[in-house]
Amino acid sequence: MKTPKFWQQRTLWSYLFLPLALLYRGIASLDRSIKLKKMQTLPRPVIVVGNINLGGTGKTPVTITLVNRFKARGFNVGVLSRGYGRKTDALLIADTHHSASDLGDEPYLIYQKTGVPLAVHRNRYEAGVALLKQHPEIDLFICDDGLQHHILHRDLEIGVVGKQGFGNELGFPAGPLREPISRLNKVNFIINNSGNLDLKKYDFIPPQFTLQSVLNEAINLKTGKAKPLSHWQNQGVSAIAGIAYPEHFFAMLRDHNIDVMGYGFPDHHHFTKKDLATLDTPLFMTEKDAVKCQDLALDLDNAWKVPLETTLPEALIDAILKTLNLDVKPNSKTHV
């Protein structure tokens, strides 16, 4: 879905939807109470990465970064995800034969960029049991987008705040929030996905860390050849983004002095050849979109994915390990 513009500021539409927002909050509260009574616990520590917003805040880049940091510390990590937007509801354990339509675009991207055991299913507890049966060496689980998945016990929660902040600060559908802002005071750590977003006014209790993000070299979808973004400096390009806030991607390209004609699509959009047929080249896209466009773009010599490189402070990894009482592995690397 595309996020409505009125989610970013309070307008007449916001107030018209307030009664439904109150109803939504009541239903969500009831659902949470029911799920908490049925909570199930996996035999390994579970880290949940989530948010209180509908729409993207950067959970998947955070998950990828955390997985790779724990791998560098010597831990065997398993990833659990719902697999939103995939073509089946079946429990799947990722392997090299699966595609983005099998796993969902975000889990597929996580699997591509980390290579760790990953399972997708609506019930993340069942996914964890199945994954652990196949990979008993797993030391800990990271659950991508699981803050509201109350049926799964979690040992640690990480709340991610996106570049858009909390918009108009109203609950869905009057605003972008799945839960009140105060919910973030119950997580263990908060990750700010923007160095320009000031969260001081909220007086959050949990420690806060900033996710640093930069665009890497563009990679050609057909040849795999990489080129620095400076190659297109002061040139015109087309760019597509099927993410919650496409303008964030376009703005990052423009920061490299590239003249971008951006085409936004709904989050998790399933691209077709028709979507790409009339667009001028060179054509840029996010990694998340590239996993769905790879085959569609094989006849385009000038289609490029632009990887996002993200980093988190080592202090956060240290704090997580301390909270979970996990010992540092002897073959760990604190920097890679």
Describe this structure in words.
With 336 residues, this protein is of the alpha/beta class. The chain has two domains: 13-211 and 312-324, Rossmann fold, CATH 3.40.50; 214-309. Helices cover 29% and strands 20% of the residues. It contains ten helices and 16 strands. The protein has helices at 12-16, 18-37, 59-72, 100-103, 105-114, 124-134, 246-254, 273-277, 287-293, 314-324, and strands at 46-50, 77-81, 92-93, 118-120, 140-144, 156-161, 189-192, 208-210, 212-215, 218-220, 226-227, 236-241, 259-264, 283-286, 303-306, 308-311. Strands 3-4-2-5-1-6-7-8 form an eight-stranded mixed beta sheet, with helices on both faces. A six-stranded mixed beta sheet has the order 11-10-15-14-12-13. β10 and β11 form a beta hairpin. The longest helix is centred in the N-terminal third of the chain and has 20 residues, at 18-37. The two termini are 37 Å apart. The model has no long low-confidence stretch (mean pLDDT 92).
